[in-house]
Design brief:
- InterPro entries: AAA+_ATPase, AAA_lid_NorR, GAF, GAF-like_dom_sf, Homeodomain-like_sf, HTH_Fis, P-loop_NTPase, Sigma_54_int.
- It comes from Rhodopseudomonas telluris.
- This is Sigma-54-dependent Fis family transcriptional regulator.
- Strand 7 and strand 8 form a beta hairpin.
- The protein is an alpha+beta fold.
- Helix content is about 40%, strand content about 15%.
- It has 26 helices and 17 strands.
- The strands form 4 sheets. The protein has a 5-stranded antiparallel β-sheet with strand order 2-1-5-4-3, sandwiched between helices.
- It has 4 domains: about 170 residues, Beta-Lactamase (2-Layer Sandwich); about 80 residues, no CATH class; about 160 residues, Rossmann fold, CATH 3.40.50; about 55 residues, no CATH class.
- The chain is globular and about 75 Å long.
- The relative contact order is 0.08.
- It binds adenosine-5'-triphosphate (ATP).
- The site of adenosine-5'-triphosphate has 19 residues, from helix 13 and helix 21.
Length: about 625
């Protein structure tokens, strides 16, 4: 079906279903129709907008902490898909079982537009509240689904094109969803396939934790796919099936009801544990290949399997940061300054390691046994940032908790307060923060008594604060207060020996121990690529390659993401997306020039033939318009 006819068909179907109360069967896909029926049956009113309440920053943090394992296991896919999302002007999202958005990466401009319809961290996109949408509907249907434009139940979601796949855990329970959402105006034909594949990889990674005591069968009908995320996995405890992935069940012609019932001896009579791939006789005589790994024989340390599993499951923050000599010296200086009560300002592009550095300073400082409280000023909703930071008295405002809240500044008492993206702090709050830093006491909202606080301050930003100062968007007095010592985290592309860096990171991720090597050509391309997402992107890509790699067979170029293989500069790609309005054209041009100038505002302004302060004014205006 052409996009146009499909578009018309959806409108015909909507008229029939919503206006005339007739069946739209055969006009739109069956899962969409089932979802419309469920939504209407639950009393959702198509003519009204859903009420979606964003959480407080505190609730969001709690939510993310509660689901830290899922986020961690999904992180390599998010990192690997980030480039694709940016190229297609979309975002990639991980949600929990209830459809609550936990993590979102991708195109910042589109993320701003998505936030306008409440597609943002902490908000639930379950079908019962949000109507037909890929996340909620995939969770109900337990199958991958794409929902485009007017297929969404609510009118305001028509600007979206979403594709989502549910994440099913090894016990057959829905663990969450992976989704790619972009503007409905642009068709991303591969989105559903990408989500399906990435969900399969995440589900495969679910086995890296909690199954150490199990006999593991890793198998496939195609011998070459054994040992890859495409393989079937069945886990047995005392001979009984206790965990599986969808592929494993499908190959064995089983369904989820086999969990806790099916027996290894009945499925594969006579099979013996072996690290080597062996031919297996599957159901109805089908030919399969696989390894049956016995925990008693599995190497506990340093062996291929455990090292690979460990590497792929390691959270992004867990990899030991690589600190060159110069960086070690900088860290030592930073620790001495923080111990002496002098604030630090960390500058550097996104992903260059500012957060890692700040945590390291805390860990090596005299305040290491007191809290490290990170606050992302860009992620806090503007209306909440004040109460979240400074706390509030009981009943200070409508919606406040009955007992009040101490606020993040007080939570950092005795420890280190890390204000990330300080450049995004609204001007009105900058003055309040300055007062706290001068007086060393916090006055909660609602007129409570000032409370003394003692914290070391580390701020960070990827923006040029001098440009913000010139544009009047950042207070000079606050700047001088927080920028008493500035540490610059260099971008990865300025690393003096990128090849050595790639090799060291690969080693650190466990590549060598797992016997998985990168081919010379892959190493060359990785070293040549400019890594706009810096360490975050580089580590994420290496993790993905590790999952795709096979012991004894060097990872080859075909495993690399297209953008690294082709090394297409982001500038060309960003401007190739057809902007739809004057505002979008302006935004695109500002962003594209900035991307092409490595984030340097002066150079971006020169490219556009305007001066720096005009560039900045425009950028702030367009940003305000987006948010
Ligand atoms: N020196 C390092 N060695 C190895 N990995 C690193 C290093 N620095 C950062 N990383 C990796 O990159 C990821 C991103 O780092 P981090 O969050 O510190 O960046 P950032 O500069 O704070 O980014 P942003 O500005 O987007 O918040 C980390 O999770 C870590 O895995």
């Amino acid at each position: 079906m052409s996009p146009a006819s499909s578009h018309d068909a959806v409108f015909v179907a909507r008229r029939r279903f919503f206006d005339e109360g007739r069946s739209a069967s055969g006009i739109v896909a069956a899962p969409i129709l089932r979802s419309w029926e469920r939504c209407a049956g639950q009393g959702l009113d198509v003519s009204r907008s859903p009420l979606l309440v964003p959480p407080t920053a505190h609730e969001l943090r709690e939510l993310q902490e509660r689901h830290a394992r899922l986020s961690r296991l999904a992180r390599p896919e998010l990192d690997a898909l980030q480039g694709d999302a940016r190229l297609t002007g979309s975002v990639v999202i991980v949600t929990d079982t209830a459809g609550v958005v936990l993590d979102m990466v991708g195109d910042a401009a589109f993320a701003g537009r998505a936030a306008e319809v409440a597609l943002r961290p902490g908000v639930s996109w379950n079908e019962a509240a949000t109507g037909t949408n890929a996340i909620g509907t995939a969770l109900v249907e337990r199958q991958p689904i794409a929902v485009h434009g007017a297929e969404h139940f609510f009118e305001r979601h028509r600007i979206l094109a979403c594709a989502a796949a549910p994440l099913i855990d090894p016990r057959g329970n829905v663990a969450g969803a992976l989704d790619m959402t972009g503007p409905a105006a642009i068709r991303h034909v591969h989105a559903l396939g990408l989500m399906r594949l990435a969900a399969e990889q995440i589900e495969h990674r679910f086995f890296s934790e909690g199954f150490a005591h199990c006999m593991m069968l890793r198998f496939h009908a195609d011998r070459a796919l054994v040992g890859t995320p495409r393989e079937g996995v069945l886990a047995f405890a005392e001979g009984v099936l206790v965990g599986a992935n969808r592929r494993g069940l499908e190959l064995m012609k089983l369904d989820w009801s086999a969990i806790d019932h099916a027996k290894l001896a009945a499925l594969l009579p006579g099979v013996r544990p072996s690290d080597q791939i062996q031919p297996l006789r599957g159901p109805q005589g089908t030919r399969l290949y696989g390894r049956l790994l016995d925990p008693a024989r599995r190497p506990s340390r340093g062996g291929a399997t455990s090292a690979r599993a460990k590497a792929s499951a390691a959270p992004s923050g867990e990899i030991e940061p690589i600190l060159g000599e110069e960086m070690q010296a900088s860290l030592a200086r930073a620790v001495r300054l923080v111990n002496a009560g002098i604030p630090l300002l960390l500058l550097g592009e996104t992903g260059s390691g500012k957060d890692v550095f700040a945590r390291r300073v805390h860990a090596e400082s005299e305040r290491c046994d007191k809290p490290f409280v990170p606050v992302n000023c860009a992620a806090l909703p503007e209306g909440l940032i004040e109460s979240e930071l400074f706390g509030y008295e009981a009943g200070a405002f409508t919606g406040a908790r009955r007992q009040g809240a101490p606020g993040l500044l007080r939570q950092a008492d005795g420890g280190v307060l890390f204000l990330d993206e300080i450049g995004d702090m609204p001007l009105s709050l900058q003055s309040r923060l300055l007062r706290v830093l001068q007086d060393k006491q916090v006055s909660p909202l609602g007129g409570g008594k000032p409370v003394p606080v003692d914290f070391a301050l580390i701020c960070a930003t990827h923006q040029s604060l001098s440009t913000l100062l010139a544009a009047g968007a950042f207070r000079q007095d606050l700047y001088f207060r927080i920028a008493q010592y500035v540490v610059e985290r260099p971008p990865v592309r300025h690393h003096p020996d990128r090849l050595a860096l790639v090799r060291r990171l690969w080693r650190q991720l466990g590549g060598e121990t797992a016997g998985v090597a990168l081919s010379d050509e892959v190493e060359r391309l990785l070293a040549a690529y400019e890594w706009p997402g810096n360490f975050r992107q580089l580590v994420g890509t290496l993790r993905a390659l590790m999952v795709l790699g096979e012991p004894g067979q060097p990872v080859d170029v075909s495993a690399l993401p297209a953008e690294i293989r082709a090394a297409v500069p982001t500038f060309n790609v960003v401007i190739s997306t057809p902007p739809t309005s004057l505002a979008e054209q302006t935004r695109s041009a500002l962003q594209a020039a900035l991307d092409a100038s490595d984030g340097n505002v002066s150079r971006a302004a020169r490219r556009l033939g305007i001066d720096r302060s005009t560039y900045y004014r425009r950028l702030l205006k367009e940003k305000d318009r987006c948010l």
